[in-house]
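Weekly modeling sync, notes
Attendees: S.R. (lead), two postdocs, one rotation student

Agenda item 3: backlog of single-chain predictions. S.R. asked that every request posted to the team notebook include the full sequence so nobody has to chase files. The rotation student volunteered to paste the first one in as an example of the format we agreed on. Action items at the bottom.

Example entry:
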Amino acid sequence: MPFSFKMEYRGNSWHETCFICHRCQQPIGTKSFIPKDDQNFCVPCYEKQFAMQCVQCKKAITTGGVTYREQPWHKECFVCTACKKQLSGQRFTSRDEDAYCLNCFCNLYAKKCAGCTNPISGLGGTKYISFEERQWHNDCFNCKKCSLSLVGRGFLTERDDILCPECGKDI
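Predicted structure, as returned to the notebook:
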């Protein structure tokens, strides 16, 4: 009779050739295995049968992972649609099913300030002024001539410019 190693796990013993994966029936030997419901699986078989599959790369998620729109993702696969930066652990938003980092979202979709032309995100309690079809950051809503803040004050318009009543009295 050929020499065989004895395999032991949780008080049970097997011949080396009898300690097999429940799914593929191959000997596990000294390779890693995962027990489930009194059955032993080699790691690849366990992943195929029980692990969640990443929506993006279709590979098994073995540790961690992210759930977005009730679907599983690897942290590394859950990235901004525009810049491909990893979104896990970052603030992000979405549009039309696509996830974006806040920077890309603001640059692509946010209204632009008529004063500084930068996006108005509205995040973090950022307040802004809206008049007709234009918007301004609070800090940018100033008289074109004297730079007086017009937040909460009356103002006049001259073409695309906004003016305080004093600077606008001659128009």
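Discussion: group reviewed the output briefly. The chain has a mean pLDDT of 83.
Action items: rotation student to repeat for the remaining queue; S.R. to check formatting next week.
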